[in-house]
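Below is a typical protein record.
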Amino acid sequence: MTAELPTTHPLDAHAPALAGLARDTGGGLSVEVLPTAQSVTLRLDPAGPARAGVDAALGTALPTGANTWVAAGDGEVVWLGPDEWLVTSRSPNAAVGEAVLRALVTGEAGGAAVDTSAQRVVLRIGGRLARELLSFGCSLDLHPRSFPAGRSAQTLLGRTAVILLARDAAADSDGGAVLDVHVRSSFAGHLADWLLDAALEFRADPAADPATDPAASPARAG
């Protein structure tokens, strides 16, 4: 029996507030909930016979440097360990998915490809304040010198386990950073609440926002 996919996104209730951060911070910070990606956790020996076929199918070489990632079509291939990668796509009908990768690694010792599409939600955080915001809840040095584009990390953000990717800063219109945060779906709401709370530091006038100042709320007037 095929399980039905959920009809709602874990961050549906948070999406308006997250989108409003760009306005509330004068354009210094943006948070976008990306479309649900197709994700496959891939295991194989990078020196084994299946490697060449996997690279050809993905259209890029698997990244073998620790804590790095590479673009692959409309998604990414993220290094998770010496023999483990996360392969993502923004399209649910990507040409390279679980079936293709599984066929390529079947029969190889330790080879596996498992669909983990429902496991994580992706938030794209951009703007000149992006790295500073994330530094409030992450112990890593997120300065561009230490965490440049092309780097990734499995770390904690707001006490939540995440996969963090540094993207090309040129993708951001105001010249700031662009970082993707992969978080487990069950913790996505918690992380969204943390981001909104941490971003109060950057609001032009947080007291003027009824959501953050009870005294300013018409419902509490009088």
Q: What stands out?
A: The CA atoms of residues 45 and 51 lie 7 Å apart.
